[in-house]
Amino acid sequence: MKTSTTPWGAVSIALVGAFLAILDSFIVIVAGPSNQAELGAATAS
């Protein structure tokens, strides 16, 4: 059995992780005002 020494598996995992971090941040930014209004929270001053 021959093992591959190319780093494409690690590169793809790193790219998916970076994409998920950006997606999570975007979801939090978009959902924040809606959650704030629903909870009746005031903005920090």
How would you describe the overall organization of this protein?
By secondary structure, the chain is an all-alpha fold. Helices cover 71% and strands 0% of the residues. It is built from one helix and no strands. The chain has one helix spanning 8-39. The protein is rod-shaped and about 60 Å long. It starts with 7 loop residues before the first helix and ends in a 6-residue tail after the last helix. This is MFS transporter. The chain crosses the membrane at residues 6-31. Keywords: Membrane, Transmembrane, Transmembrane helix. It comes from Nonomuraea recticatena.
Radius of gyration: 19 Å
Strand content: under 5%
Unreliable sequence segments: none
Overall average pLDDT: 87
* General form: rod-shaped
SSE-based structural type? mainly alpha
Transmembrane segments: 6-31
Protein name: MFS transporter
Keywords: Membrane, Transmembrane, Transmembrane helix
Organism: Nonomuraea recticatena
Key structural traits:
71% helix, mainly alpha, 45 residues
